[in-house]
Design goal:
Layout: H1 12-42, H2 48-51, H3 57-93, H4 98-113, H5 116-126, H6 134-162, H7 165-173, H8 178-208, H9 220-231, H10 234-263, H11 267-270, H12 275-283
Helix pairs in contact: 3-4, 3-6, 3-8, 3-9, 4-6, 5-6, 6-8, 7-8, 8-10, 9-10
């Protein structure tokens, strides 16, 4: 009974038809890539002088130090801030007190609805424009913190609610306060549920640093402009910049996945016992 009852297995004609669709789609994509390469070649975008800048030590240092390093700084600041804000707002939305729950709900709904670019621009004209060259940097960090913190608040709230209700009930039954139940029982068990969504949001945060270009913030998109204005190599510049973003996001995903397996997958690190098990251990 391994065959699904929700749909019929495709027959030989359907399988052949699906294979034909796959081949035609691949051929169409290859033709599109070939046409794009032909047009770029006709425009001289593959000439060596347009790519030489990316092997010139001074420009490589400019891209890595003034571009990639600043991008990573903004991303790390936004991710850390969003994690802290997300925990506070997520737990606050679960509060029994309306004075805590309602403001947290309002903050989450407000900043989750505002586009990140618009948030950066508003913060820049309200604060960043008066604080010199550091203003745009911190406006990007603040905007990423507010937006992603609001998104992660829902992730944390959903992760906590996904823990079996019996865990909280058993914890209350042995006399734990709500703060203890949240920090000792619910949050540790919700980590496994939340990690994949947190990794995805970290990748989104890293990519959204590129929007800082609109307020003259540093980063990879900022270093692209002086290079393509000098060498008139718009396509090569953005191909390289996009490749750096892809590499950085892949590295972030690998590190986050390793952390998930290391700190969540191994019982000896985050093996949170059931409340009943903990009580039985204490009695023993």
């Amino acid at each position: 009974m391994s065959q699904s009852v929700l749909f019929d297995a495709p027959g030989p004609r359907t399988v052949r038809r699906h294979r034909l669709y796959t081949v035609l789609t691949v051929l169409a994509l290859l033709a599109l890539v070939a046409f794009a390469g032909y047009r770029l070649d006709q425009e001289g975008q593959f000439e060596g002088d347009k790519w030489e800048v990316f092997v010139t030590p001074s420009y490589v240092e400019f891209i890595l130090v003034d571009g990639l390093l600043e991008t990573l700084k903004m991303a790390v600041g936004g991710i850390v801030g969003a994690m802290v804000l997300g925990v506070v707002l997520g737990v606050g939305k679960l509060s029994d007190h309306a004075l805590v729950r309602v403001p947290c709900w309002a903050v989450v709904e407000l900043f989750r609805a505002i586009p990140v670019l618009m948030l950066m621009i508003v913060l820049f004209f309200l604060w960043g424009i008066y604080h010199g060259s550091a203003g745009p940097f911190w406006c990007v960090v603040a905007a990423l913190t507010l937006y992603n913190g609001a998104v992660l608040a829902e992730v944390f709230r959903a992760g906590i609610l996904a823990v079996p209700a019996g865990q909280a009930e058993a914890a209350y039954g042995i006399g734990m306060r709500k703060s203890q139940v949240m920090s000792v029982v619910l949050l540790p068990q919700a980590v496994k549920i939340m990690i994949p969504a947190i990794i995805s949001q970290c990748v989104v945060t890293l990519k959204d640093t590129s929007l800082g270009y609109a307020i003259a913030a540093p980063g990879l998109t900022a270093v692209a402009r002086p290079i393509y204005l000098e060498f008139q190599n718009h396509v090569p510049v953005y191909v390289v910049i996009a490749g750096i973003y892809v590499a950085a996001n892949l590295l972030l995903t690998v590190v986050a996945t390793f952390a998930q397996k290391r700190f969540v997958g191994e019982k000896k690190v985050l093996d949170v016992p059931m409340v009943g098990e903990a009580q039985a251990t204490e009695k023993a």
